[in-house]
Every structure is written in C-alpha cells, then in structure tokens.
Amino acid sequence: MFRHIVLLSWVEDATEAQKAAVEAGLKQLPGAIPELRRYEIGPDAGINHGNHDFAVVADFDSEEDYLVYRDHPTHQAVIADAIKPILAGRAAVQYRL
Amino acid sequence: MFRHIVLLSWVEDATEAQKAAVEAGLKQLPGAIPELRRYEIGPDAGINHGNHDFAVVADFDSEEDYLVYRDHPTHQAVIADAIKPILAGRAAVQYRL
C-alpha cells in the first residue's frame, strides 16, 4: 500500500463557502479516479493551536497509482479552482505502508 | 474514529542513526498506549520536492483517546529525546473520520 498525505492551511479571509468548495471538489475524486483505494479528508478538529486547517489521506495499491491521482485532470482542476485561491500553506509526505 | 496526523521535517545534519531512533521510539508506542487503534508511520518516499521527511498517522476510537496518546509520558519521552534534537518543521491535523 502507498499513502499520500497533504495538510493544507487557508488564508485568514477564506470563507466557509470556499472551504466547503474544497471539500466538495475533493469528494468527487474517488468517483473519478478508480486508482483511489481509500480517501479520508476533513477539517482540523480545532484541539491544538498551530495546526494546519485540512487533511487529505489517500491510499493506493502502488506508487504508480498515486502518480495517476496526482496528475489526474479532475484533481488538478480542484487544486486550481478551489484550493489555490485560499491556500496559505501546504505540507506533504508520501510513504509505503 | 478520530485521526491524528503529524508530518515532520529534519534538520539537514540529522544522521541516519538519529532518524532510526525516532522510528524505533515511535514503534514502541502501540505496545505502551492501548488507546492506539492503528498506527502507520514512515519516512517520505522521495518522489516530490518540498515534502516533509516523516509521517505519523494514528487512529483512535475518540478524541479523548487521542489526548491520552498526546500526553502519554512514553510518547512525550520520544518527542523530547529523539524528535526534538533533529526537528526542523512540523505540521499537524486532527480530524474525525
């Protein structure tokens, strides 16, 4: 199994509608990208200060399947249209399980 | 289910032995903290530039169980003894699955 994690933080003036658009856009991806085996996304619970605002955990059978997801046009469209306009910070790791 | 994610990056002069000590220390935690339901850790695969160096994904039955893990003395000892000496950056999210 191969896992991709990305943690995102939003600009201070990001609206609830903009944040909801990110979640709605990402939720389309399992239907559009059959290589996605498991996809667990969501906003930070607000327990700890200094956290990022949103998490994406995506599991694949292989590194090659992750690359299909990474470069998929539907995914790239969500990044360009919903994520980038409100993005303040990003941290990522891919690792083998 | 309640998930904790932390992505860590290491200082440039961190040695392989120091990085291995982090992994060995964290691997003790499922045996020491019964609240941990799933624990999947590992170094970044090196595919993408700008990534953090190490990922920790910990799943719990509840937010309360995550707090037991967060504040557990065995966990805090790994942070103080193995992680902090080589820590360059940290990004975290907790979220509900």
UniProtKB/TrEMBL annotation, chains A, B:
Residues 2-95 form the Stress-response A/B barrel domain. It comes from the Bacteria. SUPFAM superfamilies: Dimeric alpha+beta barrel (SSF54909). InterPro entries: Dabb, Dimeric_a/b-barrel, HS1/DABB1-like. Gene3D superfamilies: 3.30.70.100. Homodimer. This is Stress-response A/B barrel domain-containing protein.
